[in-house]
From TrEMBL:
InterPro entries: ClpP/crotonase-like_dom_sf (IPR029045), Enoyl-CoA_hydra/iso (IPR001753). SUPFAM superfamilies: ClpP/crotonase (SSF52096). Coiled coil: none annotated. It comes from the Bacteria. This is Enoyl-CoA hydratase. Pfam families: ECH_1. Belongs to the enoyl-CoA hydratase/isomerase family. NCBIfam families: PRK08290.1. PANTHER family: ENOYL-COA HYDRATASE, IP11341P-RELATED.
């Protein structure tokens, strides 16, 4: 199992369980993760969802080689279809689950890793957490789930996309992306404590409070922006396909080797 699920005391805990590859996301992990979110959403006894990860790192992003065709067989049509379903549709669905959610993030959270924690309503980060999106270094300017501008503000979003440098947990907290920064050995306990506080609240009130905030963001353009940037991202794939060997896969391999 790439994703573990447990529910107790009105809290569902969803755990990424590929620590041997820094919780890189293959097709099976994303499908299991979507099923876990749906299970928690449908369970009347669950009021709050906690997303966490086993191992040193929250997620090294997409494990493209696990499920992509060979570079010579990749087409833009194939990429668009695969990413639309597992990246864009899944992520927007998790964001709109009508129950509060909390991400507990440690270590590296890279590119597609942001796609897992940003849909959560709250983020508790360990002191060693580093958030990054080196997509421009791979020759692609857009992203599948563009939360960057909303999570960090326009100038900070441009900085991390232009440079690829990681944002520390403290920096993310100052930008408003992270709610709390805690010692690494207290991460799970702090996320659980926050979940327990929220679980005491009336479920309908929580649902409506979440809907109010998300709908406000949507009125401001969040949903339309995410959809449009997804298409910008696909033009980046189209450009990368024009380069022999599709270098994105090579770049990702190099990055993941450094995390082992």
């Amino acid at each position: 199992m790439h994703v573990l699920y447990e529910a107790a005391d009105r809290i569902a805990t969803i755990t990424l369980n590929r620590p041997e590859v820094a919780n890189a996301q293959n097709a099976a992990l994303l499908d299991e993760l979507d099923a876990a979110w749906t299970r928690a959403a449908d369970d009347a006894d669950v009021s709050v969802i906690v997303l966490r990860a086993e191992g040193r790192h929250f997620s090294a992003g997409h494990d493209l080689k696990d499920r992509w065709p060979s570079p010579d067989a990749i087409t833009l049509e194939w990429i668009y279809s695969a990413e639309s379903r597992r990246y864009l549709e899944y992520t927007l669905r998790w964001r709109n689950v009508p129950k509060p959610s909390i991400a507990a993030v440690q270590g590296r959270c890279i590119a597609g890793g942001l796609m897992l924690c940003w849909p959560c309503d709250l983020i508790v980060a360990a002191e060693d957490a580093l958030f990054s999106d080196p997509v421009a270094t791979m020759g692609i300017g857009g992203v599948e789930y563009h939360g960057h501008t909303w999570e960090l503000g326009a100038r900070k979003a441009k900085e991390i996309l232009f440079t690829g440098r990681p944002v520390t947990a403290e920096e993310a907290e100052r930008a408003g992306m992270v709610n709390r920064v805690v010692p690494r050995d207290r991460l799970d306990a702090e996320a659980r404590d926050l979940a327990e506080q929220i679980a005491k609240m009336p479920p309908f009130a929580l649902r409506q409070a979440k809907r109010a905030v998300n709908q406000t963001l949507d009125v401001q353009g969040f949903h339309a922006a995410v959809q449009s940037v997804f298409d910008i991202h696909q033009t980046g794939h189209g450009n990368a396909l024009s380069v022999s060997g599709y270098p994105i896969l090579v770049k990702l391999d190099e990055m993941k080797e450094k995390l082992k």
